[in-house]
Amino acid sequence: MLNPALFALALLVGSLSTTGTAQTVRLVGGNTPQQGRLEVYYSGRWGTVCRDYFNNAAARVVCYMLGYGRIGQYIGYNRHGAANGTIWLDNVRCVGTETNIADCSHNVWGTHDCHHYEDVSIACVSIRLVGSSREGRLTNGIS
Fold it and tell me: What is the pTM of this model?
């Protein structure tokens, strides 16, 4: 019988990336967890994504990675403040069906011609009814 602790450790080790692709994304500085400045975790550090070619298809990929489904919107750059540190991705071009932003076309990691005032901001749309359970105003959560 397999030891449960060893099984859990094997699952964790098996899920770690050996290819160096982005395994984690987050949204920082927004009013809700569904919106903010896009940051990607790569090579042991968080960094940002430049606005060049970034569009709604790329936002949908990020929202999918975050567990919000494929409903996302690129809401501009520097909307949630400029970061410091590494700019990881530039010239990101997605179809919108990718499962990871690293699967989209982009420059080599860390190669860019951007400044942090060009950091991408996105919103993962969560549609809800405001008012009551049967009637009210429909909102998409983007302000």
Answer: 0.74
